[in-house]
Amino acid sequence: MSNKEVKAALKSARDAIRNKQYKEALKHCKAVLKQEKNNYNAWVFIGLAAAELEQPDQAKGAYKKAIELEPNQLLAWQGLANLYEKPNQTDVKGDLADVYQKLLELYESGDKQKWCDVCNKLVELYHQEKKYLEVAETWQKLIRMKQEEGAEKAELHQLWKKMIQLLKDSTRNQDNKTGQLLLTAFEHALHSADTVPGEDHQNLYKDFIQCLSKFPHEVARLEKACDDMMALYPSMTYPLEVLCLHFVQSGTLSEKALHCFSRLLEMDAGSGTGIIGFGIKCLKENKYKEAVKSLTEGLQKTNQCPAAWYYLAEAQMKIHKHRNAVLSCNQALEALGTPEGPNLRWKNLAFQLKAETLIKVADADAAEEAIKALEQIVDGSSDPVISALRGQAYLNKGLMDQASKVSQELLLSHPELAEAHALQGFIHYSQKNYEQAEKSFLNAIERKAGIAEYHQYLGLTYWFMCDETKKDKGKALTQFLKAAKLDSYLGSAFSYLGNYYRDIAGDKSRARGCYKKAFELDETDEESGTAAVNLSVELGDMDTALSILNEVTEKARPGTAKWAWLHRGLYYLRTGQPSQAVVDLQAALRADPKDSNCWESLGEAYFNRGSYSTALKSFRKASELNPELVYSVYRAAALEQILGKYENAIATYQQILKKTENYVPALKG
Questions:
Q1: What is the DSSP-derived secondary structure letter of residue 380?
Q2: DSSP characters for 464-526?
Q3: Is the dihedral of CA 182, 209, 243, 170 positive or negative?
Q4: Are 414 and 420 in contact (CB under 8 A)?
Q5: Rounded (10°) CA dihedral 360, 365, 370, 371
Q6: Which pLDDT value is given to residue 241?
Q7: Nearest to residue 389, comparing CAs of 343, 351, 355, 360?
């Protein structure tokens, strides 16, 4: 076949393809290839015809052969792209991307519109595959091309916005390079916006700040973006909210942070983040009750701040509301979810604080929970302070051997650690080895003098030590005073001071003040409450005694605060108010139905009220619970006599006289 005939055959093949006679086209091409097996156009036409005849493998082979012959010719690459774009072509996306890349290279110096079309297709392909870095880099090439062509600012603005849209899901992957390209796109979009300030620009700024807040390492950029937005939109609270939330989550309490908290509350007094910020400020200023109030209020308004739950737990711990602090730690851990990056630090802190709080609860169940919390701390096994906490939890659980082992290991590896000596002190104290306990607590205080608990335990050690110190409790007093000064919320320190002033110094007034303070700090401390009431009565200050009892009974749930109901009931009984006494003594019995003395007192109240039948039942109940209560048995007999049940009364009197021959009231009865 001559050169002229080859050209004629190729023209016939082209015409056949144009007329959709694909088989005919194949015949012409094969005839050409017999003569010229490396004819580029013949292979391209075979690719075209085979593709239309749904013979993809043959088409692909033909295009690839053509490309092999002429790698920088467009036709075969275009044909291969069309083939791969067909819906029935699966698993070719990687190949298609390579084809698009080659087409971009071939179009770059020529047809700019076609280059842009292919670029759009390539970006779409990468986006479907979630290859965000490739999306970003390819789209940047498109923008660069448009800039070189002198595109208008408005068109470039839309392209940057499109890039943001394409990359909006990429922040989940936390790929640093893609992230930087996304942030760059935001900055270009903001700078190229037409209307500034304006609604679109404002929304774009909000999206930018929200995006920045997902990148922990972009702190400076986030702060600058928030400052810039506040300057442009001074009435908007959003950038200030984000900035304050950032300061809370980062644990930063700089002058700038405090200024932002104040400014946010000035603009929006109901801002949850602002109220939380104020609560953290109170916590750092040792205003713990105000901190608890503000943090609780702020957390009711926003659920975006896991760190705030930690700060709330810390404030609750400072005022010894241990059960509440444990609940707040649990809320913090739940809000933090799966720990990553900065969240891991917060999670470790929350587990540690939870363990410390549970150790203060000081029962075996809480100790078990504390051990579990300590096990959750990442790299906690290498931290000596965590080890000391674990030792205390073992001690609270009664695992003396494990606690001693931890103590010995810590003293060997970290002899300068105050917590190591304190742990040894707690162990000696629990074993009543007071002399060794004294040495350990003094060592702990030498290394860390500001811990109230160390001084309190040293004071208790002196209190229980024998020999000279038993006669002179002055050493104990000194330590209790130090503990109370270091921690003004430590109720137990005031309770021990009350014991000293009452039992050693004989100063009832000062003792009453200490017990009252201890009870105000810890309403579950019934011993201090009772002591404060009793001393008030002894001092003739019934108003103070009643105010304490009234406060407790007003707050008490049914079946609780027996001591307060009983004390007030007995007061009413003594002061001739039997009806009120009945109400209070019944409330006391709801808390403890098996208290025989309380039943006896209730019988007396009913008797004084004139309710003889009910009084009889109460005295009988008292004597059933405790047959040794001769007075109750006598009272029952006397009531039977009053009610005309003479035979029963005689039998009961005789029963008393069998046990106590000379019991005069029974003989008289």
A1: G
A2: H--THHHH-THHHHHHHHHHHHH-TT-HHHHHHHHHIIIIIS--HHHHHHHHHHHHHH-TT-H
A3: negative
A4: yes
A5: 140
A6: 92
A7: 355
Query: Tokens 């005309």 — which residue?
Result: 644
Distance CA 24, CA 43 (A): 15
In the three-class reduction of DSSP (H, G, I as helix; E, B as strand; rest coil), residue 437 is classed as: helix
Place of tokens 């156009």: 41
Contact 469, 433 (CB under 8 A): no
Per-residue confidence at 471, pLDDT binned at 50, 70, 90? low
Give the C-alpha distances (Å, rounded to integers) separating 497 from 8, 476, 477, 515, 533.
117, 9, 7, 8, 16
Helix, strand, coil abundance in the chain, percent, nearest 5 = 80, 0, 20
450 pLDDT more than 80: yes
Rounded Cα gap, residues 516 and 495, in angstroms: 9
Query: What pLDDT, on the 0 to 100 scale, is given for residue 219?
Result: 87
CA gap 487, 477 in Å, rounded: 15
Q: What is the pTM of this model?
A: 0.77
Quickly count: other Cβ atoms within 10 Å of residue 73's Cβ.
15
Pull the structure tokens for residue 32. Answer: 């050409």
Q: What is the 3-state secondary structure (H, E, C) of 3-63?
A: HHHHHHHHHHHHHHHHCCCHHHHHHHHHHHHHHCCCCHHHHHHHHHHHHHCCCHHHHHHHH
Q: Are 406 and 391 in contact (CB under 8 A)?
A: yes
Whether the CB-CB separation of 474 and 500 falls below 8 Å is answered with no
Burial class (CB in 10 A: 0-12, 13-18, 19+), 565: buried
**Residue 653, pLDDT above cutoff 80:** no
- What would the two tokens of residue 161 be? 């916005």
- Closest of 61, 49, 44 to residue 25, by C-alpha: 49
Residue 379 backbone zone (phi > 0: left; psi -120 to 50: alpha; other: beta):
left
Distance in angstroms (rounded) separating the CA atoms of residues 663 and 637: 13
Residue-wise pLDDT for 208-245, tens only, equals 999 998 887 888 999 999 999 999 999 999 999 999 99
Provide the CA 590 distance to its chain's centre, in angstroms.
38
What are the CB-based long-range contacts (under 8 Å, 24+) for 135-144? Answer: 135/166, 135/167, 135/170, 136/163, 136/166, 136/167, 136/170, 136/178, 136/181, 136/182, 136/185, 137/181, 139/163, 139/166, 140/181, 141/104, 142/116
Radius of gyration of the chain (CA): 43
